[in-house]
Amino acid sequence: MKPIDSIEGLHLMANLYGCGGSDNLLGSAEALRDFCLAQVSLANLTPVGECFHQFGGSEGAAGGATGVVILAESHVSIHTWPEKRFVTLDVFICNMNCDNRAKAHALFDHLVAAFEPEEKRYYQVERY
Questions:
Q1: Long-range contact pairs involving 120-126 (C-beta distance under 8 Å, separation at least 24)
Q2: Which among 68, 78, 25 has a CA at the least distance from the CA of 48?
Q3: What is the C-alpha to C-alpha distance for residues 60 and 50, in angstroms, rounded to an integer?
Q4: What does each of the 128 residues of the chain score in pLDDT, given as a tens digit?
Q5: Domain spans of the chain?
Q6: CATH level 3 topology of 10-71+90-97+106-127
Q7: DSSP 8-state symbol, 128
Q8: Are 65 and 85 in contact (CB under 8 A)?
Q9: Nearest C-alpha neighbor of 14 from the set 103, 92, 84, 68
Q10: Catalytic amino acids?
């Protein structure tokens, strides 16, 4: 049963294995930030904040990156492990004033495609 004053939303998540995308995108918080903000803009969503962090790697090599873009419609988050060629990501988009499902799927699909995974595991949750 749906709660009386619920907010509907779509939460798309993925585990991406064997990523063959750009090493820069996998290992640079700055590149990941620029890419995420560009994709959010292309999806016609509204960024209201963001936070990205670069992890150090072994022997001076860059480690993974993690980041979130806070949206008026909810959020996008990505976490990378370049040494394992592994990425997790999620896109949560609310449907408060209009149905944003198509925007959520378009954004999600573009994010996944950029990492060129050999194997993908998708999860979808309808929230209300």
A1: 120/14, 120/15, 120/16, 120/17, 121/14, 121/15, 121/17, 122/12, 122/13, 122/14, 123/12, 123/13, 123/14, 124/10, 124/11, 124/12, 124/13, 125/10, 125/11, 125/13, 126/8, 126/9, 126/10, 126/11
A2: 68
A3: 26
A4: 555 555 688 999 999 999 998 899 999 999 999 999 999 999 999 999 999 999 986 655 668 999 999 999 999 999 999 999 999 999 999 877 788 899 999 999 999 999 999 999 999 998 77
A5: 10-71+90-97+106-127
A6: S-adenosylmethionine decarboxylase (3.60.90)
A7: -
A8: no
A9: 92
A10: 74, 79, 94
Rounded to the nearest 10 degrees, the angle between the axes of helix 29-42 and helix 101-115 is 150
pLDDT computed for residue 126 by the predictor: 86
Q: Which residues contact 79 (CB under 8 A, 6 or more apart)?
A: 64, 65, 66, 87, 88, 89
- pTM for this predicted structure: 0.89
Token pair recorded at residue 47: 């960024």
